[in-house]
């Protein structure tokens, strides 16, 4: 810990204090190692702006060392050829148990780094990360090839599913531990060796987790964490010829750089990007549920979710009623420091930069005539040192404004009326994104026909935001390619080999 934290915070656990008491180093080849340059960067508490910790700033040389360590573990087959699938399962299962055992520490680290309430990291981020590993722990013995009935009767042909190799996993700051786990759990289950590059704002939980992999029985080099800046550590992995695949979650802008940077060895790339997800409320919906659901569709995680329901379309006859209900619901939301003893419902946004971005959209919308039914401003008073934004509902906006079209990644929703089904399908699909879409209705025919008509990777009906390790998740259009979770993520992290044997 560099600066002392406000006295109103929940006391830090001794393990957290010890972990932050000295610079946290990259984890490579089974141990923490200082970067060659010996440079560090700092992470901040977004609730107070105070400095939390120094972290080793990995750069090109360090990426090279990490790739060599992962490459050696992979090429020697330490993790997938010498270890049986059953033993790989056990390691992954043990890591899930260790996440639960150290859950209180991981929850404090994510809450400090990201700003979200400790109650959220404790009950959502950490247990979902463990669930993910429990689910993928079941996969290693089930990753099967098939026998193919080829037409040459003197040939035996079968397929093997094998790991891609060394994979670089570049993750964002919105769910630090969980987004990294979404990637490394299937990658490890499939037998790959991984290098996790966490977001510069939130590297702490992945770095703490690294030490648990040793206790879980992972051979050195199988799991590595490379903290640093995207342009340095991230780009070095993307360009490295020893990396076989990149799994990325983040912005479309960086995704384009990753696709370009990966051409040297034509590595595989999968992308989970942003959204501007339409949330459609029909007049025939259970409106009480729709009001609460739509409020949390946008304000859950402070709008810092790739699936945030940030375009809200409400059937005109119930527009005023739904907006009045959401205004009421939003007024109940308590915003405050994520580590405050008096736990809030929402924390700050993640960084000064993100605060500036979001407020830029808010000011532009207000200048263009948007009406803020709630919010529309940064929060001051006791919260003035942190990056707090009032949950904001805009009306009097149109589909063509930047605030209605671009991903804001903050607590801002644009609410607009609509009149009929054909119209709303067209408007909902008129976006460059396609990550998620949702609707609220009691008409089962409408529900299923819209589920087909909406162009997005996930459709939520009378609910929002649900994901589970077993169910595939990913985007259409510029929301990315590839599917995380479920069986699909195993496909994403494996290659298919076809074997021919002549039998006469
Ligand atoms: P970002 O720049 O796309 O960051 C995502 C990850 O990519 C981070 O680990 C980042 O490292 C890394 N990165 C950045 N530049 C890179 C490069 N040239 N090569 C390889 N890796 C690189 O996202 P951001 O700047 O944190 O946030 C900006 C916007 O992205 C948000 O406002 C939001 O719209 C979107 N976003 C979407 C998601 C999502 O879940 N889909 C998540 C986060 C952000 P650094 O942390 O060092 O930059
Ligand atoms: Mg960035």
In short:
The chain has 504 residues and is α/β, with parallel strands linked by helices. The protein contains 16 helices and 20 strands. The strands form five sheets. A seven-stranded mixed β-sheet has the order 14-15-16-13-12-17-18, with helices on both faces.
Q: What this model shows, in words?
A:
The chain has 504 residues and is an alpha/beta fold. It has 2 domains: 14-273 and 480-498, Aldehyde Dehydrogenase, Chain A, domain 1 (3-Layer(aba) Sandwich), CATH 3.40.605; 278-467, 3-Layer(aba) Sandwich (Aldehyde Dehydrogenase, Chain A, domain 2), CATH 3.40.309. 38% of the residues lie in helices and 18% in strands. The chain has helices at residues 14-20, 60-75, 85-101, 103-114, 118-137, 176-189, 204-216, 230-239, 252-261, 287-299, 319-331, 352-367, 402-405, 421-429, 444-453, 486-492, and strands at residues 27-28, 31-32, 40-44, 51-56, 147-148, 155-163, 166-170, 193-197, 223-225, 245-249, 268-272, 278-281, 311-315, 371-374, 392-395, 412-418, 436-440, 458-461, 480-481, 494-502. The strands form 5 sheets. A 7-stranded mixed sheet has the order 14-15-16-13-12-17-18, sandwiched between helices. It has a 6-stranded mixed sheet with strand order 9-8-7-10-11-19, with helices on both faces. It has a 3-stranded antiparallel sheet with strand order 5-6-20. Helix 2 packs parallel to helix 8 (230-239) and helix 3 (85-101) crosses helix 7. The radius of gyration is 23 Å and the shape is globular. It binds NADP nicotinamide-adenine-dinucleotide phosphate and magnesium ion. NADP nicotinamide-adenine-dinucleotide phosphate binds next to helix 8 and helix 9.
């Amino acid at each position: 810990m560099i600066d002392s934290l406000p006295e109103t915070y929940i006391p830090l656990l001794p393990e957290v204090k010890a972990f932050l008491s000295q610079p946290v180093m990259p984890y490579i080849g089974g141990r923490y190692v200082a970067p060659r340059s010996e440079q560090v960067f700092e992470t901040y508490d977004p609730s107070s702006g105070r400095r939390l910790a120094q972290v080793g700033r990995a750069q090109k040389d360090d990426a090279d060392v990490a790739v060599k360590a992962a490459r050696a573990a992979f090429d020697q087959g330490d993790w997938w050829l010498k270890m049986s699938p059953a033993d790989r399962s056990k390691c992954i299962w043990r890591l899930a148990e260790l996440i639960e055992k150290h859950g209180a520490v991981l929850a404090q680290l994510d809450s400090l780094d990201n700003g979200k309430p400790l109650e959220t990291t404790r009950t959502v981020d950490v247990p979902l990360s463990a669930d993910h590993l429990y689910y993928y722990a079941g996969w290693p013995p089930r990753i099967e090839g098939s026998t193919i009935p080829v037409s040459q009767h003197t040939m035996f042909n079968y397929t093997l599913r094998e790991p891609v190799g060394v994979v670089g996993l570049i993750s964002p700051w919105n769910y630090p531990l969980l987004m990294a786990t979404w990637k490394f759990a299937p990658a490890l289950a499939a037998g790959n060796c991984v290098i996790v590059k966490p977001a510069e704002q939130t590297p702490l939980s992945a770095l703490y987790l690294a030490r648990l992999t040793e206790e879980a029985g992972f051979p050195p080099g199988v799991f590595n964490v490379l903290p640093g800046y995207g342009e340095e550590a991230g780009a070095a992995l993307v360009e490295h010829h020893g990396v076989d695949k990149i799994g990325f979650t983040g912005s479309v802008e960086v995704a384009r750089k990753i696709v370009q940077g990966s051409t040297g060895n034509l590595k595989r790339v999968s992308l989970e990007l942003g959204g501007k997800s339409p949330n459609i409320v029909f007049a025939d919906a259970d409106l009480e549920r729709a009001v609460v659901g739509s409020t949390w569709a946008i304000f859950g995680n402070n709008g810092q979710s790739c699936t945030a329901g940030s375009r809200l379309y409400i059937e005109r006859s119930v527009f005023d009623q739904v907006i009045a209900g959401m205004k009421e619901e939003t007024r109940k939301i308590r915003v405050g420091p994520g580590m405050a003893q008096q736990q809030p419902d929402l924390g700050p946004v993640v960084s000064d930069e993100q605060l500036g971005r979001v407020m830029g959209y808010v000011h532009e919308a207000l200048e263009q005539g948007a009406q803020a039914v709630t919010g529309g401003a940064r929060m001051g008073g006791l919260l003035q040192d942190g990056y707090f934004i009032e949950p904001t509902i805009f009306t009097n906006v149109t589909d063509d404004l930047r605030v209605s079209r671009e991903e804001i990644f903050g607590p801002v929703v644009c609410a607009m009326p609509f009149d009929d089904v054909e119209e709303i399908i067209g408007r909902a699909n008129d976006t460059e994104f396609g990550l998620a879409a949702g609707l609220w209705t009691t008409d089962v025919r409408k529900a299923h026909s819209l589920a087909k008509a909406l162009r997005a990777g996930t459709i939520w009906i009378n609910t929002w935001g649900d994901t589970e390790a077993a169910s595939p998740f990913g985007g259409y259009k510029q929301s990315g390619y590839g599917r995380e979770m479920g069986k699909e993520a195993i496909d994403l992290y494996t290659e298919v080999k076809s074997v021919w044997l002549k039998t006469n």
